């Protein structure tokens, strides 16, 4: 069960990711158990893009838990409008060529993810589930002034992008996975995870991994950004 008590507002060193981070994972977005995003009250209301966990075989010591990082989606399918924080899915033509596909480079977006067995739901297979958040320049939908006010939080929701290729760069660890006394308690902790991820990524040594148009700076960071956008 989750221990009582307040949570740290940021996670990981201010100086930037330390080994084993950054960790690269990639794969097509696959179906999960369908609990994340649907509107019904008894479901989470937090969409998570699931990718195959195979890439984790390279990191046998990586613990299950909640992490933060950055993601990019194949721009041939997923066309992101940064000014409006909205996305459009390209419809492919019947001959297999892309109809409205974008020629723009992929947008790199902040993300928070869970790696593990979801103890609240007692899954028997390990999953990698990524909740994508709006750019740091937009306001955060998960910030609330008073978390005991009963105010309902809505998480960031994009149009479905199943089967789209996704590149994920994990930059830091937030916490272990827990079981919870209620669905509300799980949702509130995931809300706080979003805020911790956002604050953690706002630090200079992490912000550089995002899509900020800055082509100067550390060559290792630039190479990670190039990998994120290489589809
Ligand atoms: C940031 C984040 C943290 C999470 N933490 C937990 C957790 O501590 N315990 C848990 O059982 N599930 C946790 N989950 C997983 C949710 O239970 C999961 O997203 C939900 O079961 C949806 O699964 P689905 O994609 O298979 O539909 C977390 C998910 C996210 C995105
Ligand atoms: N902010 C978001 N982050 C991740 N996925 C999102 C987001 N908004 C919409 N989606 C879509 O919702 C799907 C996940 O919903 P979810 O209920 O978790 O279903 P599943 O159990 O199939 O993973 C993703 O695969 C993606 O297509
Ligand atoms: Mg999911």
UniProtKB/TrEMBL annotation:
<dbReference type="GO" id="GO:0009231">
    <property type="term" value="P:riboflavin biosynthetic process"/>
</dbReference>
<dbReference type="GO" id="GO:0008531">
    <property type="term" value="F:riboflavin kinase activity"/>
</dbReference>
<keyword id="KW-0460">Magnesium</keyword>
<comment type="similarity">
    <text>Belongs to the flavokinase family.</text>
</comment>
<dbReference type="GO" id="GO:0046872">
    <property type="term" value="F:metal ion binding"/>
</dbReference>
<keyword id="KW-0288">FMN</keyword>
<comment type="function">
    <text>Catalyzes the phosphorylation of riboflavin (vitamin B2) to form flavin mononucleotide (FMN) coenzyme.</text>
</comment>
<keyword id="KW-0067">ATP-binding</keyword>
<keyword id="KW-0808">Transferase</keyword>
<dbReference type="GO" id="GO:0009398">
    <property type="term" value="P:FMN biosynthetic process"/>
</dbReference>
<keyword id="KW-0547">Nucleotide-binding</keyword>
<comment type="pathway">
    <text>Cofactor biosynthesis; FMN biosynthesis; FMN from riboflavin (ATP route): step 1/1.</text>
</comment>
<dbReference type="InterPro" id="IPR023468">
    <property type="entry name" value="Riboflavin_kinase"/>
</dbReference>
<keyword id="KW-0479">Metal-binding</keyword>
<feature type="region of interest" description="Disordered">
    <location>
        <begin position="1"/>
        <end position="25"/>
    </location>
</feature>
<dbReference type="InterPro" id="IPR023465">
    <property type="entry name" value="Riboflavin_kinase_dom_sf"/>
</dbReference>
<feature type="domain" description="Riboflavin kinase">
    <location>
        <begin position="18"/>
        <end position="202"/>
    </location>
</feature>
<dbReference type="InterPro" id="IPR015865">
    <property type="entry name" value="Riboflavin_kinase_bac/euk"/>
</dbReference>
<dbReference type="Pfam" id="PF01687">
    <property type="entry name" value="Flavokinase"/>
</dbReference>
<dbReference type="GO" id="GO:0005524">
    <property type="term" value="F:ATP binding"/>
</dbReference>
<dbReference type="GO" id="GO:0005739">
    <property type="term" value="C:mitochondrion"/>
</dbReference>
<keyword id="KW-0418">Kinase</keyword>
<protein>
    <recommendedName>
        <fullName>Riboflavin kinase</fullName>
        <ecNumber>2.7.1.26</ecNumber>
    </recommendedName>
</protein>
<keyword id="KW-0285">Flavoprotein</keyword>
């Amino acid at each position: 069960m989750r221990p009582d008590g307040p949570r740290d507002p940021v996670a990981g060193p201010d100086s930037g990711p330390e080994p084993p981070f950054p960790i690269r994972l990639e794969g097509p977005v696959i179906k999960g158990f369908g609990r994340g995003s649907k509107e019904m009250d008894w479901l989470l209301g937090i969409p998570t893009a699931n990718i195959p966990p195979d890439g984790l075989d390279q990191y046998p010591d990586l613990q299950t838990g909640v992490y933060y990082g950055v993601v990019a989606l194949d721009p041939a399918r997923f066309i992101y409008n940064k000014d409006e924080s909205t996305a459009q899915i390209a419809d492919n033509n019947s001959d297999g060529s892309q109809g409205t596909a974008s020629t723009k480079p992929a947008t790199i977006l902040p993300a928070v993810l869970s790696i593990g067995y979801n103890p609240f739901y007692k899954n028997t297979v390990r999953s990698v589930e990524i909740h994508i958040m709006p750019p740091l320049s937009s306001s955060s939908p998960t910030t609330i002034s008073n978390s005991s006010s009963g105010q309902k939080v809505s998480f960031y929701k994009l149009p479905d992008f199943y089967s789209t290729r996704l590149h994920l760069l994990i930059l830091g660890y937030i916490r272990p996975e827990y079981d919870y006394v209620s669905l509300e308690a799980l949702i509130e902790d995931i809300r706080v995870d979003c805020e911790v991820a956002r604050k953690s990524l706002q630090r200079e040594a992490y912000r550089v991994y995002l899509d900020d148009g800055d082509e100067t700076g550390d060559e290792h960071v630039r190479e990670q950004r190039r990998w994120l956008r290489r589809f």
